[in-house]
Amino acid sequence: MTCYDRRDLGLLLLRLGTGGVLAAHGAQKLFGWFGGHGLEGTGQFMESVGYVPGKASATAAGLAEAGGGTLLALGLATPGAGAAAAGAMAGAAAVHKPNGFFAQEGGYEYAATLGLAAAGLAVAGPGRLSLDHASGHVFDRGWMVPLALGVTAVATAVVVGARNERMREKTEGEQEALFED
Question: What does the alpha-carbon distance between residue 173 and residue 160 come to, in Å, rounded to a whole number?
Fold first, then answer.
């Protein structure tokens, strides 16, 4: 008989909470569930904050959140799931960064917390109360952790960097237009 310890129960609770919240946010983007705006509305928002093309960006963010969140909750492919969710949250944090840290002011606190929890699960692993454990960790090997996090970090840096450049150019263009009037 297998005896589960506090760590396994704690990881299960963390996975269910973090994964559930991420999956719900992804469903808002992809399907318009839970008061979300679906791909069309989210795509328009993504364009307005510099993620171009908007609909493709909304799809990528929605899949990373819904897919990564669901897989985290199940404890399946934990390194990739955590990395994907963390990358999506880094992209969200970039949007909220100008508002400071605290969420009550529109800051990046919430996105950072979800991203760090997802990355932490990718590193710590899912525990024994998981599909990864039940499947013999086929999709949860030690070498997968740095690979998943590294690839996600590079992709996120490219996407967020391009977004930040577009926003900088937009701001400069608006300032120039003010001086011309």
Answer: 20
DSSP string, 49-96: TT-SSHHHHHHHHHHHHHHHHHHHHHT-SHHHHHHHHHHHHHHHHHHH
- Residue 101 tokens read as 């840290």
Residue 10's nearest CA partner among 140, 130, 134, 132 is 130
User: Is the four-CA dihedral 62, 29, 14, 74 of positive or negative sign?
Assistant: negative
- Please state which of the ranges 63-77, 97-111, 112-126, 160-174 shows the lowest mean pLDDT: 160-174
Check residue 26 and report its DSSP letter: H
* Token pair 């946010």: residue: 25
Output the pLDDT for position 11: 98
pLDDT digits (tens, 9 = 90+) for 34-50: 999 999 999 999 999 99
Distance CA 173, CA 176 (A): 5
